Amino acid sequence: MTGYGRATAALEGRTLTVQVSSVNRRSLDLTVGLPEAWTALEPVVGELVRGVAARGKVHVDVEVTGDAAGEGAAWDDEAAGAALDRLQAFALRESVEFRPSAELLWSILNAQRRARSLPAAEVAEPVVREALGEALRGFAAMRAREGEALLVDFIQRGEILHRQLEIIAARAPEVPLLYRGQLHRRLREAGLDLDLDDERVLREIALFADRCDIAEELTRLRSHFEQFAGLLRAEGEVGRRAEFLLQEIGREVNTIGSKANDLTISRAVLELKNELERIREQMANVE
Known about the structure:
By secondary structure, this protein is α+β, with helices and mostly antiparallel strands. It is built from 9 helices and 4 strands.
C-alpha cells in the first residue's frame, strides 16, 4: 500500500527531518537513509517500521539541516589539510593534474564540519525515535485511508461474485435435463429409434449428470465467500490469509468451469475469474 509521513524535531540547534514513504510490494522491502555517523540506528528504524508495516517498498530518510551555534569553530584545519594532501597524493599516483579550487576547499571543510558537528548516535536516538514515531503515525493513517477505499471495492466485487455464483447455482439443475433433450434429438436425427427410458439412454444421462455435478463446489464456494467477507472486517494482518482464500476460490471456480458443459455457466465462470483476478491484484497491496 502507498503511504507517506513526515515529522521534524529539534536536535542541538538543528532540524531533524524524518520522511517515510512506501509503494506497493507483496513483501516488506525497507531501505533507510541515515547520516553516516548514525548508521548504528538502522536496526532501531527497522524495528519501528516493522511495527506498522508488513508489506510495501518502504523508504525512511533521516536528514539534519540548519547550523548549530558555534559550528564554525568545529572546523579542524589539520583534518582538512590531511584530506587535501590525500587527494593530491592520489592525483599524483594517477598522473592527474591537481589544482585545488576554492570550491574544493569549501567542500572538504564543510563535509568535515558536518561530520564533527553531529551528535553521537546514542544522543540522537531518542529524538530520531520520537520524530520517526510521529512520521509513522501519519504514514499509517494514509495507508488506513487507502485500506478503507479498498474495503469498499472488495465488498462491491464480492457482490458481483455472489451474483455470478447464484446464476451458476440456478442453472446447474437444468443442465442434465437439457442434455437429455439434446441426446433425444440426436438419436432421432441419426435414425435411432430408442426410447428415452431405454437402459442405455438412462445410463448415458446418469453418467453425464454425474460428470457435470457441481453441488460440492458450489457449497465450498459459498463457504469461501462467507470467510472472505468476514476476513475483510477482521483485525490485524489479513492480506496473506485473504490471498490463500482467493487461491482456494480460484480452484473451485476452475473445477466448475471444467465440469460445466453449459454456455451460461461458462460465461458466469469467466466473469468470476475476471473479478477474482482484479481482487487478487488489489489484495497484493493489503497488509
